[in-house]
Each structure stands twice: as C-alpha cells, then as structure tokens.
Amino acid sequence: MNNLFPILAVETSGDICSAAVLFDKNDFVEMNFLQKHIHSQKLIEMIDIVLINANLKLSECKSLAVSMGPGSFTGLRIGLSTIKGLAFGSNISIIPVPTFEAYALNISNYLTSGTKFVIAMNASGDEYYFAKFIKSEEHVETLDELSLVEKDKLHQMIKDDELVYGNSFHERNMKNVLNPTALKIGRWAYLLGNDLLTSNYDYLEPNYFKKFIVKGKR
After folding, report:
1. Which of 26, 74, 158, 210 is least crowded, fewest Cβ atoms below 10 Å from its Cβ?
2. What is the pLDDT of residue 213?
C-alpha cells in the first residue's frame, strides 16, 4: 500500500480542525487547532503549513484522506469540499474515511485482543451515534454497525463487561474520547482504505447519518 504515500489527511468532523501529511506509518507532519467554528477560517491555511513543513508540494501527494462522518454537519462539508477541490485541481485520488472506524482503530491500539468496546458520541441532547467493536489480532472488527440511539436506550445495548468510549454520557463510567486527528484519519486510510480509493469525486457526500433540521422562530 506504499503507493498511497505521501497522504494528505484532514479531520473536521468535530471541534478539532486537523491536517497532516504522512510519508509512512512513522514519518508525518501534523497540525491541530481546537476551537469551535474555526474550520472554514483555518483549514486551507493549515494544509499549506503542513505541506511547507513536510517540504512537499500538493501535486506530490499520492492520495488525500478525509473524515466522512458522522459528526458536525458544517465541519464535514467544509472538510470534504476542501479535499474535493484539491483533488480535482491536482488530479489526486481520495480515500473517504468512516470517522467511527478511525475512532475504533485508534482506541484498539491500547486494548488486548478480544476486548469488546462501544463508541457512543452525542448527536443531540437525546440521541447518540452508537457502534460496537471488538479488538482482533489484525486490527478491529465491527460487532454492531453505526446507528442512532436514544439516550435512555443506550444502557440496554451495552453489557457490563464492555468498555465505553464517548462524550456526555454520564449514566455509566465512560472514557472520554476526543475526535481523531488527521493523523488517525491518515493511518486508517493506509491500513484499511485502499479499496475505497477513488477518483470519482462527484458522488462523495458526508455521512451525516442524522437528518439536519433547521430550527427557527415562529
């Protein structure tokens, strides 16, 4: 899978705005900015900075990796539209990375084989994005596919011996997990994303998963 390197990766699904260049699994340049609603102002600048620090031109990248969601509606659209524009202008293929699978891969690095764990991230006040995984000898396997679950039903879906990672779920002992950075997105891309590599940019859309409802005053 060395034909994917160098990889330019971005992560904009949550509060972290992140860009990275990966030359291989150990050699990389990354920049992170943790501030809400900053993605549209900072992402292009951050991409320029990591490319300069990597002593690399965009045209020298072999692939672009982007976090596809679920997550922030605005953040995901900014990240994907930016990557689409760069890919089109430089004729580079894109690896669309499922955000929860990137979460899971990163978490699994700290677990022993056979450990089951849940990721439950707040989607709204009453709903959570939910998925269940198991650490395998290779990487990580999905047990329960990503779904949208009401908060009061979460405890029914989690067994006592399963670890729980996420945010804002106070009903049980949850290990807080921040959004993966661009480095984690890039690592998922070169380990597991080769089959997703595409030059057909038009069909790519963020995995919002949850319908976006605009609330207004009556």
Report:
1. 26
2. 46
Phi then psi for 208, rounded to 5 degrees? Answer: -65, -35
Q: Are 163 and 154 in contact (CB under 8 A)?
A: no
Report helix angle 182-192 to 99-108, nearest 10: 90
Which tens digits make up the pLDDT trace of 165-191?
987 655 556 677 667 899 999 999 999
| Mean pLDDT score across all residues of the chain | 90
Cα within 13 Å of Cα(212), Cβ side = 10
Beta bridge partners of 119: 131, 165
Q: Which domains does the chain possess?
A: 2-99+179-196 (3.30.420.40), 111-176 (3.30.420.200)
Cβ-Cβ contacts under 8 Å for 123 (sequence gap 6 or more): 70, 129, 148, 209, 210
How many whole angstroms separate alpha carbon 53 and alpha carbon 29? Answer: 7
- Going by the DSSP 8-state scheme, the letter that residue 170 receives in this structure is T
